[in-house]
Structures are given as C-alpha cells and as structure tokens.
Amino acid sequence: MRRTFLAGIALIAVSTLPVGVTQAQTMTDLSVFSQANDNSNMVIDHEGWSVILRGIVLNVPPMDRMPERDRPVLTGTRINTASTSRYRHEGNRVVYHVLNDEYRDAITYMREDLEALPDQFGGLARLSRDEQLAYWFNLYNVTIIEQTMLNYPVHWINRMEAHGTDDNVFDAKILTVEGQRLSLNDIRHGIVYANWDDPRVMYGFFKGSVGSPELRRSAYTGDAIWQQLDSTAREFVNSLRGVEVNNRELRVSEAYDEARVLFPDFEADLRTHLRQYANDETAEQIDIDRPVSAQVSDWQIADMINGSRRCTGVAGPSTMSSFAFDSGPQDQPTGVVANCASLPPNAAILLTAVRARRIELINEGRYGEVFTNDLPTIDPDLPAGNADDNAEDNAEDNDGESN
C-alpha cells in the first residue's frame, strides 16, 4: 500500500548531496528557506498526493451565494448535530468519517516523506520558486488533514490541539524540514507570506475548516501552480465565505486580514484583487463604496457530518465498499467511501444540496464549469495510471475547470 501511494513522490534530475542543517538544532531559522534557484530543472512529482486527494475529497460545486438561514432538518431525532453555518454548503469536503486504515496510513506516510524529501537532494534552495511553493502548500495541507484525522471527530478546527500535545494545531512545532522545527503558522506566515508577495498564495492553504479556501482534489505542482491558485481564488472570492452580502460594509473573510502583508494598501489593494476574480454578482458587492470588514469566518470542520460521529453500524465501522451515487458491483470495493449501515443524516443533507445545485447548473447550461464526480470511486490499490483511468470513467463531465 505504501509503495502504491509514495511512488508519486519522486524527484526528477536530482542527485543526493550533504545536508547543511542538522536535526540537533533547537532554534528555528526560517531564513534558510529564503533562497531559490529559478534556473533549476528539478521537479517534484506530487502525483501520489493527487491520488490520495481524489480518494478522500468530495467535490462541492459553487453555490448560488444565497446564505443558508434555516436550521437543517434531521428527521427522527430532536438532537441536531448538523452544521447551522450560513456557509455550510460551500467548499470541498474531506470524508474523514469513513477513512480506512490504508488511507490513514497513506496520509501519514505522505507527510513523513514530504518532510524528509529536501534532505535527499541538498535542500529546497536548489528548487525554483514555483516548485518550492507547491511543496509548501502540499506539506501544509497533508499535515492539517493528518492532524484532523488523528483528532477526529472534532468540531472546531481553531480549537484543535496538535495530536499528542497541548499546543494549538497551527502553533505546534510538529514538522521538521531541513533540520528546522516548523509549525503550520511558520510555513504560512514565516516562509510563504515572507518570501512571496503575490496575494494569490493565500489560497493555497487549506486550514481544515468550512471558512477556509477549499482543498483541491489534486496536488499543487510547480508547473501549474498559478493556474491552480487562480482557480481556487475564483471559487473563494465568489463564495459567501469569501465575500459576504451586507448593506453597510464590504464583509470579507478574515483570511484576508491574516494575509494583510500581501495587501500593502489594504482596502484599495484588496478591492483590486477581488475584482480580478469576481463574477458580476460579486463585483456589485465589491464596487459599492463601503468600508471593508475582514471578519467573515467559519471554523467548523470541512467534513461531511460536522464532526459529530463516525459512520458505524451494528458491527462497528463499515468496510469500504461504495458510497457513490453510481456505485460498482456490490461485491467489489470501488473506492474509499464506505457503504455505511445508514447514511448519516448530516451527510445526507449536504449531498442533497450538492445534487440540487448540480441539477441547477445543468439546467443553466453551466454543468461543465465544475468537476462532476459525485464521490471518489478510485480503488486505492490500483497503480497511479489505472487510478487516473478509473477517475475519468467515473466523471460524468469534466470539460470545464477542475478542482
């Protein structure tokens, strides 16, 4: 299993050189990550991470910018554990509640291998800026997914402690790269925001929550990094969790305030940036002369069941068979998503909203604008090439922009 997934992490045109920074260091020196070689022909192959993402991420199409106001209706119980967020039907979701041991192990192996990778070729300074950026995004995202997986079920991501520590997950020094002990905030603020001044870099970080820029179903890669960030930026800016509806002020995500260093003249630069990605409806909100308030947030977990419980039946956690709308033969596993004894009501509400929105997009002739796999149906034991074929076979329509 490990070989299947980790085959995707490889370095092309790389020779192993001595590492100048040792594990013995106790103080973090982020300056070691400030150098790059833009003439480098070294390329990191992140296909192994893409294979995992295609197996664990539910693609949610762009919604209609109408906030969800009523409480979700769960029949058969007075206990409501579904999300009440205005943004509860926005952004891709991770199917934590049904991850089997193979996927859990693969996620941990991927994080470990990404941590160790720079030591195999003499350090990140030998890579181009774009290759470095893809590396940091993928390491950050696999780490927050692993931490959420280890703490699951969990409801509020911003209150989550790093597994095995008393420290907040974003502040804990849980990674070691080139001998430097790093936190997730070190990567985001101390490395990426400090060395890249393009505002688009803020969209590469999935923070595990509904209010975050969404998690793509493919890894970031150096050769496509800016197109990928453009796509993620477009989804976020045109969502309510990115730019809210308000008559008195331009309400935007707190993620923009956290990335304020990327917008020197904050209000003017932010409006200019938002207009680059706004559709007509969002642009109307941006163009009205109102003060900017960067306070929109939702730290609830970006999963399918709001971190309420695992998917279990009478005999305990179900085996991985098929949870997709168009499942394969019942006696053959078709992917990571489980055929639970009963679909958790929270998940059913989300899937109903996803289905309804896809029907709406079809009726509007816009279905090709989104990647339309209902749920991941990739056999994790297939080689990467066959997994790609499997994904294509299960896609109803992938003519448009894909996440």
UniProtKB/TrEMBL annotation:
| A Pfam family that the UniProt record links to this protein | DUF547
Quote the InterPro entries the UniProt record gives: DUF547 (IPR006869)
Q: Which residues form the signal peptide?
A: 1-24
Residue ranges of every copy of the DUF547 domain listed in the record? 125-237
Q: Where is this region: Disordered?
A: 372-403
Its protein name is DUF547 domain-containing protein
Provide the alphabetized UniProt keywords.
Signal
Asked whether the UniProt record includes Nucleotide-binding among its keywords, one would answer no
Q: Where is the composition biased (Acidic residues)?
A: 389-403
Q: Which domain of life is it from?
A: Bacteria
